[in-house]
Amino acid sequence: MEGGDATRARRATVRLCSICNQRKAALKRPKTLEQICRECFYVVFEDEIHRTIVDNHLFKPGERVAIGASGGKDSTVLAYVLSELNRRHNYGLDLFLLSVDEGITGYRDDSLETVKRNEIQYGLPLKIVSYKTLYGWTMDEIVKAIGLKNNCTFCGVFRRQALDRGAAVMKADKLVTGHNADDMAETILLNILRGDIARLGRCTLITTGEDGPIPRCKPFKYTYEKEIIYTYAYFKKLDYFSTECIYSPNAYRGFAREFIKDLERIRPRAILDIIRSGENFRISSSTKMPEQGTCERCGYISSQKLCKACVLLDGLNRGLPKQGIGRTKGLNKSKDEENKNSSFHSKPCGTLDI
Ligand code: SF4
């Protein structure tokens, strides 16, 4: 067969990348269904995140940015991509890794070893804050006291504050987390199902807490989980930890997650469409929203006299661990706080709260 014919025959059997039209396609993008090669995938994946950062004005030059790092796939890819983009596009950011040690033997101690390796691999300094130091309790001790029913409520509330406190100690201007498009869609759905208007209003924002000391950003807001884990992290052979938390419940959020995955299988754009729908919800001006103040005891942001962490901690220290779970009596009484006490607060996970 002549050289030209051989090339044509080969192209007829091998599907070529729809971007470069040169290399063999290695994957089909779930968002666009394009079949592309690895090299073009790296370019479009990183460019999309760069565009999200630039279009949403996530950072200013010179800012000190804490990357919430659990050692899991999303935060590992975030740390890697953000440090690459920071170099490539001269963002001028001072990046560091911030991890929370919840004190979960056989889970967090192992995943923190991954973060410690990432510290060296990506050249990013690491700060670890622990529940034991901040609250006097590890999650192992909390689970011993309360059992496995509401453990994630404690863990989610404590983690949120621990990250803020760690970021404040390290004088960070911003905190970034690895929440991806699937997490966003799932949270929107959960907030609709539970009728949590206050959270529904803010859960679609790419940056939250701008009125507080340390705003939080989600550069992966439009990035599909599949592309983060099964493609980018896998092709790049990134070092991440994938074991599930030993206290992970199979709760309400798990069903929402499965529902989103089913929708994605039928129509991959469903994830982005749920996010768009969430972004376009408008809260009626007659809806009463909670007023933000500060906790009387610790000074953390709170819409009640005491913040949620102080209420939970108070219960633990007084041997009444159920205090603050379900209906709150005596300390904080509003309906809003009762809603917040529900156990499907956050991704039950190793990843970080939205
Ligand atoms: Fe904490 Fe997540 Fe484990 Fe629940 S599943 S105990 S929130 S690390």
UniProtKB/TrEMBL annotation:
<dbReference type="InterPro" id="IPR035107">
    <property type="entry name" value="tRNA_thiolation_TtcA_Ctu1"/>
</dbReference>
<keyword id="KW-0808">Transferase</keyword>
<dbReference type="InterPro" id="IPR056369">
    <property type="entry name" value="CTU1-like_ATP-bd"/>
</dbReference>
<feature type="binding site">
    <location>
        <position position="100"/>
    </location>
    <ligand>
        <name>ATP</name>
    </ligand>
</feature>
<dbReference type="GO" id="GO:0032447">
    <property type="term" value="P:protein urmylation"/>
</dbReference>
<dbReference type="GO" id="GO:0005524">
    <property type="term" value="F:ATP binding"/>
</dbReference>
<keyword id="KW-0963">Cytoplasm</keyword>
<keyword id="KW-0694">RNA-binding</keyword>
<dbReference type="GO" id="GO:0016779">
    <property type="term" value="F:nucleotidyltransferase activity"/>
</dbReference>
<dbReference type="Pfam" id="PF16503">
    <property type="entry name" value="zn-ribbon_14"/>
</dbReference>
<dbReference type="InterPro" id="IPR011063">
    <property type="entry name" value="TilS/TtcA_N"/>
</dbReference>
<keyword id="KW-0820">tRNA-binding</keyword>
<keyword id="KW-0819">tRNA processing</keyword>
<feature type="region of interest" description="Disordered">
    <location>
        <begin position="326"/>
        <end position="354"/>
    </location>
</feature>
<dbReference type="InterPro" id="IPR000541">
    <property type="entry name" value="Ncs6/Tuc1/Ctu1"/>
</dbReference>
<protein>
    <recommendedName>
        <fullName>Cytoplasmic tRNA 2-thiolation protein 1</fullName>
        <ecNumber>2.7.7.-</ecNumber>
    </recommendedName>
</protein>
<keyword id="KW-0067">ATP-binding</keyword>
<feature type="binding site">
    <location>
        <begin position="68"/>
        <end position="70"/>
    </location>
    <ligand>
        <name>ATP</name>
    </ligand>
</feature>
<dbReference type="GO" id="GO:0002143">
    <property type="term" value="P:tRNA wobble position uridine thiolation"/>
</dbReference>
<comment type="function">
    <text>Plays a central role in 2-thiolation of mcm(5)S(2)U at tRNA wobble positions of tRNA(Lys), tRNA(Glu) and tRNA(Gln). Directly binds tRNAs and probably acts by catalyzing adenylation of tRNAs, an intermediate required for 2-thiolation. It is unclear whether it acts as a sulfurtransferase that transfers sulfur from thiocarboxylated URM1 onto the uridine of tRNAs at wobble position.</text>
</comment>
<feature type="binding site">
    <location>
        <position position="74"/>
    </location>
    <ligand>
        <name>ATP</name>
    </ligand>
</feature>
<dbReference type="GO" id="GO:0000049">
    <property type="term" value="F:tRNA binding"/>
</dbReference>
<feature type="domain" description="Cytoplasmic tRNA 2-thiolation protein 1 C-terminal">
    <location>
        <begin position="293"/>
        <end position="323"/>
    </location>
</feature>
<dbReference type="GO" id="GO:0005739">
    <property type="term" value="C:mitochondrion"/>
</dbReference>
<feature type="binding site">
    <location>
        <position position="178"/>
    </location>
    <ligand>
        <name>ATP</name>
    </ligand>
</feature>
<keyword id="KW-0547">Nucleotide-binding</keyword>
<comment type="similarity">
    <text>Belongs to the TtcA family. CTU1/NCS6/ATPBD3 subfamily.</text>
</comment>
<feature type="domain" description="tRNA(Ile)-lysidine/2-thiocytidine synthase N-terminal">
    <location>
        <begin position="65"/>
        <end position="249"/>
    </location>
</feature>
<dbReference type="GO" id="GO:0002144">
    <property type="term" value="C:cytosolic tRNA wobble base thiouridylase complex"/>
</dbReference>
<comment type="pathway">
    <text>tRNA modification; 5-methoxycarbonylmethyl-2-thiouridine-tRNA biosynthesis.</text>
</comment>
<dbReference type="Pfam" id="PF01171">
    <property type="entry name" value="ATP_bind_3"/>
</dbReference>
<feature type="binding site">
    <location>
        <position position="183"/>
    </location>
    <ligand>
        <name>ATP</name>
    </ligand>
</feature>
<dbReference type="InterPro" id="IPR014729">
    <property type="entry name" value="Rossmann-like_a/b/a_fold"/>
</dbReference>
<dbReference type="InterPro" id="IPR032442">
    <property type="entry name" value="CTU1_C"/>
</dbReference>
